[in-house]
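@channel anyone free to eyeball this complex?
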Amino acid sequence: SQTIHQWPATLVQPVGSPLSLECTVEGTSNPNLYWYRQAAGRGLQLLFYSVGIGQISSEVPQNLSASRPQDRQFILSSKKLLLSDSGFYLCAWSGGNNSPLHFGNGTRLTVT
Amino acid sequence: GNSVTQMEGPVTLSEEAFLTINCTYTATGYPSLFWYVQYPGEGLQLLLKATKADDKGSNKGFEATYRKETTSFHLEKGSVQVSDSAVYFCALADNNNDMRFGAGTRLTVKP
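replying in thread with the prediction:
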């Protein structure tokens, strides 16, 4: 069966520090991969999605970036965090067109 | 473009009450429709889905019917429990890998 792992679960970082959140998927090949952000009490904001290695689409211009160095690995990064980057970050995968998303457990990021 | 609109919350019900959370969508083509549930501090879990018109998705006592004529996918449950307290998201996915979510509806069930 397919599983998705996302870490760390919680993270507290100072303003201006770098960020790296990692997500891996097991049990499937060539998944579509997604990064979402959820601000407190708000809905989901799609940040990045990827349909293959090295293929990244950005939905919202900001100081975050994403990379997909391997088929089942998706990394969210920032060189310098802002206070507004605080939130709950969710990684997800899907099997393709019309398929549901399967989410990781999320990373709660607090920028201080 | 595609979009999903769901009723604003929060919704507060007493245990064993009937639940309806409205969801309507706008899409070209024939999307698949989903309901997700998010418990506090966790990621989203797929609750149910429907892939074509008139399909009924069901799980854990929740149901939703894909209504193409009204472009709706309302979530219903006949008798809610305290453990159903969570945030519910309506979503659609189309043939172009475009996944759209509603804003979420927070449900609180009181004993």
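from a first look: Chain B has a mean pLDDT of 93.
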